[in-house]
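Hypothesis: this fold can be encoded by more than one sequence.
Test: take the structure tokens below, design a sequence, compare later.
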């Protein structure tokens, strides 16, 4: 372990250190898809802090990960042969990569999210890889209505508002159905991951606020769940360790993940804004109006065949105007998961990283 890795490892929570040590003892080499993304990169950093051998798979170049000792392979999960070759000699796979976002046609989501997942599963079987941890999303159950303290007994959405949620639901079922004695699988559903290094939620909130375009949707504030980046990584590590057990409780199951601190959307946004001393958001748009605007914009973008994301969609309008928080007792019981960093601690770290 290098001096830098040793420093990082020693600053981690003792629970994180313990689970990393256990994972290192039970694996020869770990494979991470989407290694260049927010969660994938953080996962690689945690793994390397414990001197765990990591193969990182991503579409771009990430010299900062190579500098940490991650063996980077450039490729697309839709490319079967490149993926197959890269996964050789690994025994644990964290399948984090996916096309996210709220706009795009079915093929643009199904090719990476569904076909790509098929490729991962097939390569795992061909290489006798024993553990597959899949990063799913709570969007697999979201149909535009309030989700109040729901758990994993909630069914998949009967109707999806975009192809992202549909593609992730199909992929999640494929992963869980592939669970066997030789390949143990689990699907994790973290909600609204945030923290230092975030390139989506935090930057968008700050940019829209600075442009005076940030608004709340709906008359009433609704509770939502979020999860700090370190907690999301920790849950993935716990799942990998649990899957190594012969009677793994989590094998073949899906789990909601969060900070276990439901918070009003307005409060969460304002905490992010406060990290850069920006004024609190107070302007509101009626939920029905936001939904109507989202619907019209979708029609216009489809008619014009525009590929960039509309400023509002039906899915976004519903997400911003409904409650969605989760009962994570299953993750606590089966994975021994409890958040390491609470929202206030996370916001302190976020503020330092932004200034």
């Amino acid at each position: 372990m290098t001096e830098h890795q040793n420093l990082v490892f020693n600053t981690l929570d003792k629970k994180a250190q313990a689970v990393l040590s256990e994972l290192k003892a039970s694996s020869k080499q770990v494979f991470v898809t989407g290694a260049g993304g927010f969660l994938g990169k953080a996962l690689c950093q945690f793994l390397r802090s414990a001197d765990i051998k990591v193969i990182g798979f991503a579409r771009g170049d990430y010299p900062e990960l190579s500098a940490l000792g991650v063996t980077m392979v450039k490729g697309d999960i839709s490319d079967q042969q490149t993926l197959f070759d890269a996964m050789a000699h690994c025994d644990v796979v964290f399948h984090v990569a996916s096309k996210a976002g709220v706009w795009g046609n079915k093929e643009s989501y199904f090719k990476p999210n569904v076909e790509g997942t098929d490729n991962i599963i097939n390569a795992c079987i061909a290489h006798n890889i024993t553990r597959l941890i899949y990063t799913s999303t709570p969007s697999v159950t979201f149909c535009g209505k309030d989700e109040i303290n729901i758990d994993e007994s909630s069914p998949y959405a009967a109707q999806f508002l975009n192809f992202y949620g549909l593609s992730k639901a199909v992929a999640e079922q494929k992963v869980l159905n592939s669970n066997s004695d030789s390949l143990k699988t689990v699907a994790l559903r973290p909600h609204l991951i945030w923290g230092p290094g975030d390139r989506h939620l935090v930057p968008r909130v700050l940019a829209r606020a600075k442009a005076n375009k940030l608004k709340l949707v709906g008359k009433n504030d609704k509770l939502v769940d979020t999860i700090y980046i370190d907690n999301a990584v920790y849950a993935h590590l716990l799942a990998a360790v649990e899957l190594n057990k012969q009677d793994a409780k989590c094998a073949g199951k899906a789990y909601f993940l969060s900070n276990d601190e439901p918070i009003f959307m307005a409060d969460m946004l304002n905490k992010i804004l406060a990290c850069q001393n920006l004024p609190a958001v107070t302007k509101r748009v009626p939920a029905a109006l936001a939904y109507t605007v989202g619907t019209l914009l979708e029609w216009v973008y489809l008619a014009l065949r525009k590929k960039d994301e509309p400023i509002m969609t039906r899915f976004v309008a519903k997400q911003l105007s409904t409650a969605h928080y989760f009962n994570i007792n299953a993750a606590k019981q089966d994975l021994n998961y409890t958040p390491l960093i609470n929202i206030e601690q996370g916001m302190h770290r976020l503020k330092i990283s932004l200034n």
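Residues 3-354 form a domain with the Rossmann fold fold (CATH 3.40.50.720). The chain is about 45% helix and 15% strand.
Hypothesis status: open.
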